[in-house]
Amino acid sequence: MTKPLLVAFDGPAASGKGTLASVIAADYGLPFLDTGLLYRAAGHLAHVRDIDPAVAATLIDAETLADEALRGREAGERASRVAAIPEVRAALFKYQQDFANQPSGAVLDGRDIGTVIAPHAPVKLFVTARPEIRAHRRWLQLVKLNPALTEAEVLDDIRIRDERDSSRSSAPLEKAADALLLDTSDLGIDAAIATARSLVKSRL
């Protein structure tokens, strides 16, 4: 019997991990979960319903995850804040772990997949890039929704989120000891995808 393939992608905001993870999932025909979307949803629900984020984390459904508002800058900021709350992480832990442990295998991307959610994953990639590069990428996405947004504002956001994600007491952002490092700072999308594919194959 073939062992299910489980691939963990971790890294800071706008590193490219989501794009790469979705490509790898498609390559191997695996279900894919962007776990950051769960935290965006929890933060968004807590805000619009004025409820405790830990309660909001238990109310997430497919309709919530499809909300376009989750793609915006504000949702990203709220996600980073609620992700620092241990009760929120606990509420979302089982959802993520169940997804990771599907018989078919899975690909997940987030901040703590290889360290907390699926430390047993045979393939782990830690995707990063310099803050200025990540800010430029995120700005290109967000400026379409908010033409007044400056790249400097996005860089400030990125640095704040990096600090918050790496310093929180509950499941901080860090590279798993056995994760392969992929720095996309100087890579175009095609080169980054090719490198990710090569790294994944090296662990199979």
UniProtKB/TrEMBL annotation:
Supply one GO BP term: pyrimidine nucleotide metabolic process
- Keywords from the named record: ATP-binding, Cytoplasm, Kinase, Nucleotide-binding, Transferase
**Domain Cytidylate kinase, residue spans:** 7-199
An example Gene Ontology molecular-function term: dCMP kinase activity
EC number(s): the record gives 2.7.4.25
Q: Which GO terms describe its cellular component?
A: cytoplasm
**Where found?**
Cytoplasm
Residues that, per the record, bind ATP:
11-19
Family, per entry? Belongs to the cytidylate kinase family. Type 1 subfamily.
Query: Any idea what this protein is called?
Result: Cytidylate kinase
What organism is the protein native to? Asticcacaulis taihuensis
